[in-house]
Amino acid sequence: MPGIGSKLNKAQWGVVQRLAAHVDVWNSEGPVGPAEMGRSAAKMESVEEVLSNLLQFASSQRVGLHSSGRRARALTARTEAAESERDEGEPNFSAVPSFEAETPRKRPQSTEAETPEKDKASDAPVGSLTHLQAPVAKKVEPDRFQFWLPPSFDPSNFLDDHNRETFLYPLDWADEPDVEAHPVPRVRVFADDKEKGKLLEVLDSGKRLGLLPVTAARMPFRNGLFSIPKVAKRDRMVLDARPPNALEDGKDSDWIQSLGSISQFPHWFLEEGEVARVFSEDIREFYHAFVISAQRLQPNAFGMEVEPYKVKHLSCFRPWMWKHKRLVPCLSTMAMGDCRAVTSHLGCLLRVPELSLDSFISLKGRPGRGDFLAGLMIDDFIMVEKSRRDEPQEKLKQSRCSQIVAEVRKQYEEVGLPRHPGKAVENALCASFWGVDFDGEAGTIRPNLRRCIPVAFIVLEMLKLGCTSVSLLEVIPGSLVSTFQCRIRFMSCLQYVYEMQRGRRQSDVLRISEELCDELVQCIALLPLTCLDMRLKPSSKLIASDASPWATAAVFTDLTAEATAEFQRHTLQKGMWNRLLSPVGAYLREKGLLEAESELPNQQAYDMHPLWEEIVLSSEFQQFGKTRRRKGRQHINLGEVAANLDAEEKQGAEEPSSFYVHLQDS
């Protein structure tokens, strides 16, 4: 990698120009404050508090002078110095820091017996923090809850037979409430006694409260309750339903396969002159809009009890309740996260004539071949439609998706699902949904910058300190993994951020090693590049690569652009190979003696798609690049991955901004 200030050749300038657009988008984002961060603001504030405590700790213990802290500060300083010395005629790409790898320092020689002890000492905690990051879950503050109209949606009309039965009669399908057979997770209603009374009143005013006698509730298997911040002045109520869930078999979770997924957008491309327009609908208080059956009230019991005279003023109180000494409050609507909620929402949408399952992208469902696609993520329904850039406005109003979304709104009104007009999007070139920013004009999808930018700030400040707590290290990978969903390969950078947590307490304070510093700096640099490009062009090549223990090579055959665009739809949804073969298995594989069912985990066997079999048997292939030879043996699986990456690097240099199909073993 060229250092800061180096003169770039033509090829390197080509790379810079391709990356510049992504950096410009990052730099053009305005200031990000609590209002912009929305529901993630509370989490970031908690992390900043931990950083403040780390700063105090580092100042008192002088651990902030560790080399990684100096390195991060030095890298930032060199970036600023390079900016001040830049020639006026050169483009400005310095707003996002550019980091140069330093020459590794030589470590003192030590014997094999000494090295483990030395490493152990250098990785040892340097102290402990008494203040850990505050959990996202917080005490219930009923004044911060805002419920919409009373529950009005009956999902039973949109469920299959099995899900309808388990929804209406959950106790008939649950195990017996035996504590010995089903250990009960410890939960609680996270609220003060005074707030509990307000909570019941708030729920009752929205027709979302029921009361049962103690004898009718499965007492050990009642629910906890807490809240999480939603926006600056509102919280979201969450039922901790682990106890009643322990009595269910979990077989109703197949619904998850119908959830929309950003991972399918790399198979949907825009042609020259085309743009993509977004239509979206959002449901108000989705789970709490559901009407439930009398039997479902029992699994929704709260882990609290009240005396009748304390709740006699509530509208859900009935005269017969005076006969019981104590009553159990219950949530009289759907618990957040119930799998049948999404199933019924999808069933409701499929009542619209123009929508079918083929229209939807999902975890495993590729986009259709038409000009629009649909997707459902719990309560967020979206459609994306292709149109010509110069399409008249009047014609856009009569587009296919405009007509479909009008029918969807009618359907919502008929079935009692309260839509949120303020969040609806129609015929928009740019929109935010499912945690990403969609730009139909540029043809890009990138993680929401109002969430990415605070993460980058937190990581950089942590690196400047040179130390971190284990509790903070637990937060960073989750944020980065969420961001890298748009470029899954970037997740391969995350290694030491997990390793340093192993065997540690959350309160432990650790020095940031050089390896972790380099890893996190690399992640910061990759954040602006985390983007899906829907304007990639199909390559004219189909590439195949393979390896032996001593060499790697690749070949290619010519295709038409139309064939490449079609073939990429038939590539694997998820790789089946996820671990190295054992030494014995690798040896047998090299000799051609390993059985097919032994090559993959769990005795899986891969049947080649007839399409690939036809191509490799009927096409004429030519060598692609040089055959790379090794002096020593290499594990066969690693060799296959290396062959793939070598061929991909060459393909990327020859046809940048393109997509292609690659056939390989691992």
Task: For the structure shown, list the relevant keywords.
666 residues, alpha+beta, 5-stranded mixed sheet, 4-stranded antiparallel sheet
Explain briefly what this protein structure is.
This protein is α+β, with helices and mostly antiparallel strands and 666 residues long. The protein has 4 domains: 10-85 and 448-532, no CATH class; 142-259 and 285-340, no CATH class; 274-284 and 341-443; 536-663, no CATH class.
Low-pLDDT stretches are: 63-68, 85-121
The proportion of residues in beta strands is 15-25%
Q: Count the DSSP helices.
A: 21
Calculate Rg over CA atoms.
29 Å
- Helical content stands at 25-40%
Tally of structural domains: 4
- Helix/sheet category: alpha+beta
Shape: globular
Q: Let me know the number of strands.
A: 20
Query: How many angstroms does the end-to-end distance come to?
Result: 28 Å
Write up this protein.
The chain has 666 residues and is α+β, with helices and mostly antiparallel strands. Helices cover 34% and strands 16% of the residues. The protein is built from 21 helices and 20 strands. Strands 16, 17, 18, 19 and 20 form a five-stranded mixed beta sheet that branches. The protein has a four-stranded antiparallel beta sheet with strand order 7-8-5-9, with helices on one face. The longest helix has 21 residues.
